[in-house]
């Protein structure tokens, strides 16, 4: 009984060691006897990466860039919300104070709560605005709460031009608005093997792209057009293998 | 290891693209192999969905084990994927892709004495899911039992037990394989007779 338990726990310890060592440097076969096939299996499963496994690297980086740009577009929203909650807390504190202390203190607190959110154009910036310096055009004009910050035709041109020589501004509004975010998605989409693309479009991650393109069937054309403007080099690298519509009948 | 990793995570959170690339290269292979066992041929799709979400949610990552965070996202995406697939049973499994996979495995086996990565993963995929996941998270992703347990929603001890059982089963399969190989020679096209497919996803890897 005890022997069996010992054997078993030894087994377990050995297994733990194998699991830990699978990714480590090759320690060589055990000193005596043939190489352990189980260790070999685990090492094979945890073998160093093959290039094929990293094929999605550029797409992942594109997603990273797109996310950064989207986040950079909406920096005003978060601090504002935080300030708002801080205000609420202050206000509640104020209420509590009113109950106990005099009204003067409460008044001071109330004053403060009303002051903080100088409501800048949150609505304009919350959207995934892609361009580099999104806040400027609207921030310049406190009254102007135009929902389309970049494409705004009027005299708002001077500020943005310095940062974005990209011809996005000339685009129709929809493209300009979603362009950068979607160019990452487009890259992710176009870097997929042909036969996986259609399926990919049914995943929630691509919803926005499909909407922007106006339907799944328009996505390839939309993406090519978009990337031709935002990142022609990438597109050129990707395109040499034209959409061989073999649908993967061979490989 | 963890120091480097958390440095890279911080840099990536600050917007450093190279740091993100480093994270990708470090995690993707293990993640992809894990997902391959979970969802078969769609693993690459699920992995790219995972990275999409990682990129998006990176600012909200508040510390802890980064690999576990990424793998958790991947696992959730995989479960979503399987759920979607179940709802849409008409989706065909791209057969020739599986054939490729199996072919790769075979050539890898013939080329060297040792098992190829694909063949090894195919064998692990034949384990009951709990055991397969425990083995993969421990050996391939490189997490300890406690961290793997957090991902799987189980205690560290349960993960250890599952991994242990999985390894025992694998050892058995390896024995059977060796026997089959010696008894039947190498003329049969599919020498991996010891592996009986149990579920569609294991079929998908095994061919």
From TrEMBL, chain A:
Residues 192-201 have a biased composition (Basic and acidic residues). Keywords: Membrane, Transmembrane, Transmembrane helix. The chain crosses the membrane at residues 88-108. Residues 21-42, 111-201, 231-251 are annotated as: Disordered. It comes from the Bacteria. Residues 123-165 have a biased composition (Low complexity). This is Uncharacterized protein. It comes from Micromonospora qiuiae. The lineage of its organism: Bacteria, Bacillati, Actinomycetota, Actinomycetes, Micromonosporales.
UniProtKB/TrEMBL annotation, chain B:
Residues 23-88 form the RNA polymerase sigma-70 region domain. Residues 119-170 form the RNA polymerase sigma factor 70 region 4 type domain. It holds the Pfam family Sigma70_r2. InterPro entries: RNA_pol_sigma-70-like (IPR039425), RNA_pol_sigma-70_dom (IPR014284), RNA_pol_sigma70_r2 (IPR007627), RNA_pol_sigma70_r4_t2 (IPR013249), RNA_pol_sigma_r2 (IPR013325), RNA_pol_sigma_r3/r4-like (IPR013324), WH-like_DNA-bd_sf (IPR036388). Keywords: Sigma factor, Transcription, Transcription regulation. Residues 179-207 are annotated as: Disordered. NCBIfam families: sigma70-ECF. Belongs to the sigma-70 factor family. ECF subfamily. PANTHER family: ECF RNA POLYMERASE SIGMA FACTOR SIGK, RNA POLYMERASE ECF-TYPE SIGMA FACTO. This is RNA polymerase sigma24 factor.
């Amino acid at each position: 009984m005890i022997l069996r338990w010992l054997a078993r726990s030894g087994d377990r310890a050995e297994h733990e060691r194998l699991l830990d060592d699978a990714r480590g440097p090759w320690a060589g076969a055990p000193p005596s006897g043939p190489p352990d096939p189980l260790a070999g299996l685990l090492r094979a499963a945890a073998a160093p990466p093959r290039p094929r496994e990293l094929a999605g690297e550029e797409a992942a980086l594109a997603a990273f860039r797109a996310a950064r740009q989207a986040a950079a577009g909406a920096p005003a929203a978060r601090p504002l919300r935080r300030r708002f909650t801080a205000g609420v807390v202050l206000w509640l504190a104020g209420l509590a104070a009113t109950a106990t202390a005099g009204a003067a203190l409460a008044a001071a607190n109330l004053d403060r709560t009303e002051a903080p959110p100088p409501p800048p154009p949150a609505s304009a910036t919350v959207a995934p605005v892609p361009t580099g310096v999104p806040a400027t055009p609207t921030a310049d004009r406190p009254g102007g709460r135009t929902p389309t910050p970049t494409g705004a035709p009027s005299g708002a041109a001077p500020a943005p031009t310095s940062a974005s020589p990209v011809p996005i501004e000339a685009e129709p509004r929809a493209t300009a608005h979603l362009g950068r975010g979607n160019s990452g998605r487009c890259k992710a989409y176009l870097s997929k093997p042909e036969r996986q693309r259609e399926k990919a479009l049914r995943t929630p991650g691509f919803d926005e792209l499909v909407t922007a393109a106006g339907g799944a069937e328009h996505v390839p054309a939309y993406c090519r057009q978009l990337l031709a403007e935002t990142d022609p080099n990438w597109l050129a690298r990707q395109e040499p293998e034209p959409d061989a519509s073999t649908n993967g009948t061979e490989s | 290891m963890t120091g480097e990793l958390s440095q890279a995570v911080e840099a990536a959170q600050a917007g450093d693209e190279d740091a993100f690339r480093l994270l990708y290269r470090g995690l993707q292979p293990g993640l992809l192999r894990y997902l391959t066992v979970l969802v078969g041929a769609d693993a690459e799709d699920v992995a790219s969905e995972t990275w999409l979400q990682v990129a998006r949610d990176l600012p909200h990552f508040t510390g802890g084990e980064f690999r576990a965070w990424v793998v958790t996202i991947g696992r959730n995406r995989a479960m979503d994927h399987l759920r979607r697939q179940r709802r849409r049973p008409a989706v065909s499994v791209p057969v020739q892709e599986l054939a490729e996979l199996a072919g790769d495995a075979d050539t890898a086996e013939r080329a060297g004495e040792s098992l190829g990565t694909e063949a090894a993963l195919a064998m692990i995929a034949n384990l009951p899911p709990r055991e397969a996941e425990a083995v993969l998270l421990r050996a391939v992703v490189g997490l300890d039992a406690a961290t793997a347990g957090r991902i799987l929603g189980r205690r560290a001890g349960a993960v250890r037990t599952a991994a242990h059982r999985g390894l025992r089963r694998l050892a058995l399969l390896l024995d059977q394989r060796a026997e089959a190989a010696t008894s039947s020679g190498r003329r049969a096209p599919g020498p991996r007779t010891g592996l009986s497919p149990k579920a569609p996803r294991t079929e998908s890897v095994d061919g």
